[in-house]
Design a protein that fits this description.
about 90% helix
Amino acid sequence: MGKAIAYLVATIAGVVVVGWIAVQLLQVLVGALAYLIVGAIVVGGGVYLYGRAKRSLAPGTRNQRRIEAAAKTYRMRNR
């Protein structure tokens, strides 16, 4: 009877320890995954904004024509 109780207590303690280790490992993995997701969003947003800015100043766009006209006016005024 004493051995059965000892085995039962050892089994319960083992399950608790393995469960605690599993929870800690899961928290580390979820934390790393969260950092990866946030990093990917930040990098993706930067690439998106860079592309938008580059397209808005491409040759033939309204903004580019305005910049060129302003530069031409500035050059003509400061001869």
